[in-house]
């Protein structure tokens, strides 16, 4: 039994794991957990990840949640090139520093545009006032400013001259608002150049492949939403709509 | 030149770092950044951490933010005992898994209780909102349920038989609501036992020392916040 990665490419951290595994030729079975169909709530998937979230990993009897943990596990098990998680203590610390800060800054803000523009209307039938989107984009702008000033600065990549897990986790989040027409790279030339470098380092074809779903998310506006999923999300939706 | 750790023990991640460094006899200079005096907003501290947050580390010309990063950096540089961040691939993954998950769950919700009950009243000069506190407690309850079911289960510590960075990062966060008078350990015997084991593994004296300020947080209610800090917090804490 080989490595299994439980993924839905609509999810930012899933894309990071997918890209990393593919780029490094790590053999794995793609186990599709369709979020819109509520498959993350199935009992079977609960045995892989009791937290009922993607991405998740299954390696023999060993199961693992959390994309950061999965990326680090894969990098160690498959001995991926050093630049992804440099052995140099200070460079490694820079990756750790970004991966930690990322959760409550880039990650917490970048995904909201999709919720406001597509998911909430899809699940509730209600559209939110434009101020709501503006509020969310303003918060993301603050995170982006800190990203450029503290983490990227004038370097090609977050750690220095080579791409690392930090850049990978960041880029997949920043592609989320692009999918709903919020081009956060517009008017941000430094960020735009960094994005190009990351795409180049990952490989344009692989990058496009990973992002195909999210960049065509508007096509999903007509799909049938699983009713159980609606129920699960009700409290989250209520909170976001306040 | 010795490692400088910029800390305020009112902050949970600062306590994790303080305990880790002391426990492992890592020589460091304690640079006190008094949050209630707004010292983290100073230009000088901004040179150490442009994000203006504690904890922060300065090791010669090298500066570092984020407690997870600092803990890992110290564990590597000072070659601390294996159990803190086990070299076994799967055990290490369990630590990484917890350190990642906790940001938006245990940490966020534990902070929310402190913010609702102590910080907001201090900033706006009004008593705390019981509804908001109840909401915050409910959210932490959900996170605690997941903590017990997924991360702790029936093991002595998160990874297994020995304490690791995961337990350390968890315990300091869970002491925050306790310091505000919300005893989240009440009616949770498994969690209480885990806490005792963690205190034992860290050393009771060191644990108490790290938590002294927080456990006397009621003294904060009479604190006068400097106006710049008050304004800064008003912006930060907008609902």
TrEMBL record, chain A:
Instruction: Please indicate if the UniProt record lists Signal as a keyword.
Output: no
On subunit structure and binding partners, the annotation says:
Homodimer.
Give start and end of each GST N-terminal domain: 1-82
Q: Which gene encodes it?
A: LOC112103641
Q: What is this protein called?
A: glutathione transferase
Which PROSITE patterns has this protein been placed in? GST_CTER, GST_NTER
What this protein catalyses is: RX + glutathione = an S-substituted glutathione + a halide anion + H(+)
Write out the entry's keywords from A to Z: Cytoplasm, Transferase
- Domain named GST C-terminal: which ranges? 88-229
Q: Which family does it belong to?
A: Belongs to the GST superfamily. Theta family.
Top enzyme class? transferase
Where does it primarily localize? cytoplasm
**TM spans, by residue?**
none
Look up the record and give one Gene Ontology term from the biological process aspect.
Answer: glutathione metabolic process
Places the protein is found: Cytoplasm
TrEMBL record, chain B:
Primary location recorded for the protein, binned into one broad class: cytoplasm
Q: What EC number(s) does its UniProt record assign?
A: 2.5.1.18
Q: Give GO MF terms, alphabetically.
A: glutathione transferase activity
User: Which key words tag this protein in UniProt?
Assistant: Cytoplasm, Transferase
Q: Which reaction does it catalyse?
A: RX + glutathione = an S-substituted glutathione + a halide anion + H(+)
Cross-referenced PROSITE patterns, in alphabetical order?
A: GST_CTER, GST_NTER
Report the sequence similarity comment from the record.
Belongs to the GST superfamily. Theta family.
What name does UniProt use for this protein?
A: glutathione transferase
Q: Read off the lineage from the record.
A: Eukaryota, Metazoa, Chordata, Craniata, Vertebrata
